[in-house]
Amino acid sequence: MSSDTITIAVEKRDIIGKQVHKLRREGMVPANIYERGEASVALTAPLTILTKVYGEAGKHHPVEVSFDGKTKLAMIKDVDIHPVTGVIRHVAFHAVKQNETVEAEVPLIIPEDNPAHRKGLLVIQTTDTLRVKALPNSIPDEFVADVSKLEDAGDHLTVADITIPAGVELVDIDPEHTVATVEEPKDQLAAAAAEAEETAAQEAEGAEGTVASDQGTDGGTDTPTNES
Description:
The chain is α+β, with helices and mostly antiparallel strands. 24% of the residues lie in helices and 33% in strands. It has helices spanning 20-25, 47-57, 115-118, 186-219; strands at 6-9, 11-12, 28-34, 41-46, 63-67, 70-81, 88-95, 102-109, 122-125, 129-134, 143-144, 156-158, 169-170, 178-183.
């Protein structure tokens, strides 16, 4: 877990419902902070700042959210992003306590510098994040996989191959779940298939030639009959 503190200053907002379109046109993003036992608080923050904070914190790093002269420790739980423009439209913060465990999604990194890539093979990553449970300040910023096992086509990594720090618990995932696998590029597969097809054709042609030769030999080996 990074020791860097991520902070954001926000403002309470009175504009709700369909009127939030006006905020977005002004470069502001509506947000809410939720806290157990408390009513949610409607907030707003500049798009540029909120985008930067989300880029740094993701859904795994605690954020200090300041408003109304107070600061709350929170995690980003939900982000609504426009499907076309990629612009953040809403953020949901959930207040947390330093001494209580929380769940978070931690990015899984499969380094591109690995034995399989150096051989020209493809490493297909099938899982981008791992859900964990830990104290807020114990949640890792990322998991980096040991890729030394990824060398030949068919090699793979599972969740069990990922090193999980002490105090961090995986949530709802099978240790044998595959997170990355090695495959041959499509062009290599196509070339291999074409080569196999050509070899099979040549073998079939050779077999036909052998049969024809045998038949010709059989037709010229009759023993002549002696006539008196």
